Amino acid sequence: MLRRSLWLCICLCSCPARGLRVHEYLYFQVLSPGDIRYIFTATPAKDFGGVFNTRYDQIHLVPADPPEACGELNNGVFIQDQIALVERGGCSFLSKTRVIQEHGGRAVIIADNAYDNDSFYIEMIQDSTRRTADIPALFLLGRDGYMIRRSLEQHGLPWAVISIPVNVTSIPTYEMMQPPWTFW
Predict the structure, then answer these.
(1) Helix (H), strand (E) at residue 80
(2) What percent of the chain is modeled with pLDDT above 90?
(3) Which domain of life does this protein belong to (predicted)?
């Protein structure tokens, strides 16, 4: 009986129940500016948006103007064929993704608007409008988004240069440049 109970426990604990999901992570590296040359962690939207079928060795990460990207963008021309950095708030995650898609963006990274958030990932889900989006949508911790925007402002730069996605399984742990403010 004990042996059977142990086997059942091992089976249930090692086989996740349907509907439960472990966070999937996607990594990108800021190449420029150099003071934030770190590998950042993001999570993909749960039930909308596309996937990265291409690796971009050098692509611009352009902060949206206005940051919430809930309507027309003042810098939409710079988002064309690049990745947009957007701030959470003002409208749904899907609405933001569609605005960036309509401006020709290849993907959107939505940073939490809680600048002190350095550990809690929010699950981005579809709104109730039945709209869709084709470009990848990622969620970024608020502290990470804030630090990227702050660095760009300090250097007077309109965008960062990033590499996305990054395969961290091939990078030795001691070589991974992780943001010093984020727990891994």
Answers:
(1) none
(2) 72
(3) Eukaryota
> Which residue shows structure tokens 């150099």?
34
Q: Is the pLDDT of residue 16 over 50?
A: no
Residue from 96, 87, 182, 176 nearest 144 by CA: 182
Does the pLDDT at position 4 exceed 50?
A: no
| 142 Cβ contact partners less than 8 Å away, ≥ 6 residues apart | 88, 111, 112, 113, 114, 115, 116, 117, 118
Cα dist from 35 to 30, 110, 132, whole Å: 9, 21, 36
What type of residue is 100? I
Across 4-13, 23-32, 52-61, least confident range: 4-13
Pair 160, 72: CB distance under 8 Å:
no
In the chain, the percentage of residues whose pLDDT exceeds 70 is 86
d(CA 84, CA 104): 10
Kindly indicate the confidence band of residue 184, based on its pLDDT and cuts at 50, 70 and 90.
low
Which of 120, 159, 158, 153 lies closest to 139 in space, CA to CA?
120
Can the peptide bond before residue 165 be classed as cis, meaning omega within 30 degrees of 0?
A: yes
Is the pLDDT at 17 greater than 80, yes or no? no
